[in-house]
């Protein structure tokens, strides 16, 4: 196999990594909340009902911003059902996921949960622009953020939360372009209500950061036109436009699946172009940033079976979307993380969808253990060491042929330089059969040694962590990686995620 190469130079950088790039997502969906993070009867539960075993794993994962409460769920969300004494809260039908929502876990519990995750955990709250509108968004904002002395802020205090929640980042609805969304809208309809809501929320607090809904995927027929229309209405009022993308193999085509980040990078670049086009039309100096607030590998077919059925039995916290990820999935997932880092100049918020049980890096059993999926490891490593300035990486790599994306590089890589001068390279070898030799020229970075080369790979690409074997897959150290006279040399195992730390 020909050697893949790239050069790192401190003078050539892409952008600073915003810690919000390592966000995740807690939706009232399946068992993400109930028996995921919240299970009062679990042996490890604290007095608030939060599972300590899950909290420990969340901290280890290193998530920052946590989007809540949906997703599709938010388009039917009545925030007032989720506050006040838990025993008085109503049970409601959740049309999005055909479940019964008990509201046992609500807004106050979410904020308390974030505090326990740690100081880096920041709220990102979505308002319902599906079945509701400006008035309810304002009520929620007043309840959550106004210090005191009004009906809703005093109600919050009466409910036991004297201090305001200080929610800075707000999503103006969710996937409003999707026909599956309760209260789905055209771009014109949504652009208008998003602008009205944004204007009103800023009247209450000009410092809020607002995310307008972009397309729910690049493959939507209205993609790009939707963004342009929505931004024409909201450009001066919002800070971000959202992107959502999920990947899975189609018709068993694993080679294209492994190149999913090609689609993700083009999606990002197309949205940037659209934002800047609207900005140019408006003669604005302002730049809209990207909130990639749902991304992951997701095997959607099992959900579509339920979605297309007539069943309406409204279970509580059913097992939904509980994908169990393989090594192959984790390599694709790592490559998606690399794509986000490579665009850190404009992608300043990103949320891995989701956090626990639902297409998640952490799985739990009710009353039983919690464990790390294969995807846990790339995320935890990137969140820990992917902090600093992204260096401009342009690879010269051997290629392979994919049905969806044509000729594609076998190497996908990025590198981040921390404030202390250390550099971490994140790299994926997309070859399913061949090791990939790698050489990186590092002149001018003052690096002298390899602190760590950690690999996620397995002889069985289908290997995964399960209840029976929760530690079947973990990262292992690579052998033979060296740094001599300004050149890093390594061999990337077939189908592998790699983190190489240079000191
Ligand atoms: O993350 C699962 C679902 O995917 C979200 O609720 C929705 O926004 C998206 O379609």
TrEMBL record:
Pfam family of the protein (one): ASD1_dom
Enzyme class name: hydrolase
EC number: 3.2.1.55
Coiled-coil boundaries: none
InterPro entries the UniProt entry points to: Alpha-L-AF_C, ASD1_cat, GH, Glyco_hydro_b
Keyword Cytoplasm: no
Alphabetically ordered keywords of this record: Carbohydrate metabolism, Glycosidase, Hydrolase
Protein origin, superkingdom: Bacteria
Region Disordered: start-end pairs: 458-483
Domain Alpha-L-arabinofuranosidase C-terminal: residue ranges: 293-496
Similarity remark: Belongs to the glycosyl hydrolase 51 family.
Subunit structure: Homohexamer; trimer of dimers.
Protein name: non-reducing end alpha-L-arabinofuranosidase
Source species: Streptomyces sp. 900105755
């Amino acid at each position: 196999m020909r050697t893949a190469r790239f050069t790192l130079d401190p003078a050539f950088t892409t952008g600073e990594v915003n810690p919000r790039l390592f966000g995740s997502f807690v939706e009232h969906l399946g068992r993400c909340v109930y028996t995921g993070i919240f299970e009062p009867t679990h042996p490890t539960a604290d007095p608030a009902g939060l599972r300590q075993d899950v909290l420990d794993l969340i901290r280890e994962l290193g998530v920052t911003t946590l989007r809540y409460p949906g997703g599709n769920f938010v388009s039917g969300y009545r925030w007032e059902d989720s506050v006040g004494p838990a025993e008085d809260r109503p049970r409601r039908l959740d049309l999005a996921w055909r479940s019964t929502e008990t509201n046992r876990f609500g807004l106050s519990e979410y904020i308390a949960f974030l505090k326990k995750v740690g100081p880096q955990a920041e709220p990102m709250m979505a308002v319902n622009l599906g079945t509701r509108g400006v008035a309810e968004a304002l009520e929620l904002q007043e309840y959550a953020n106004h210090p005191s002395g009004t009906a809703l802020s005093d109600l919050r205090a009466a409910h036991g939360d004297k201090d305001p929640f200080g929610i800075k980042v707000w999503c103006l609805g969710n996937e409003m372009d999707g026909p599956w969304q309760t209260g789905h809208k055209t771009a014109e309809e949504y652009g208008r209500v998003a602008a009205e809501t944004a204007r009103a929320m800023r009247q209450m607090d000009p410092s809020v950061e607002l995310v307008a809904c972009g397309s729910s995927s690049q493959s939507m027929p209205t993609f790009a036109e939707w963004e342009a229309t929505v931004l024409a209405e909201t450009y001066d009022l919002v800070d971000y436009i959202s992107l959502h993308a999920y990947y899975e193999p189609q018709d068993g085509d694993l080679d294209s699946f492994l190149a999913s980040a090609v689609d993700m990078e083009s999606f990002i670049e197309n949205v940037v172009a659209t934002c800047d086009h609207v900005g140019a039309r408006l003669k604005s100096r302002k730049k809209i940033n990207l909130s990639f607030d749902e991304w992951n590998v997701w095997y959607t077919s099992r959900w579509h079976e339920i979605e297309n059925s007539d069943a309406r039995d409204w279970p509580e916290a059913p097992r939904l979307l509980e994908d169990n990820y393989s090594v192959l999935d984790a390599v694709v997932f790592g490559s998606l993380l690399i794509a986000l880092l490579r665009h850190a100049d404009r992608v300043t918020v990103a949320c891995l969808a989701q956090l626990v049980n639902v297409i998640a890096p952490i799985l739990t059993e009710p009353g039983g253990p919690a464990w790390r999926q294969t995807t846990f490891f790339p995320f935890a490593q990137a969140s820990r060491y992917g902090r600093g300035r992204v260096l401009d990486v342009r690879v010269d790599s051997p290629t392979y042929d994919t049905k969806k994306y044509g000729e594609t590089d076998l190497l996908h890589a990025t590198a981040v330089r921390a404030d202390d001068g250390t550099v971490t390279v994140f790299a994926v070898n997309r070859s399913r059969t061949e090791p990939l030799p790698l050489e990186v020229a590092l002149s001018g970075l003052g690096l002298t040694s390899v602190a760590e080369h950690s690999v996620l790979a397995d002889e069985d690409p289908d290997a995964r962590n399960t209840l029976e074997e929760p530690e079947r897959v973990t990262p292992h150290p690579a052998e033979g990686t060296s740094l001599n006279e300004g050149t890093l040399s390594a061999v990337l195992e077939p189908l592998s995620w790699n983190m190489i730390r240079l000191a």
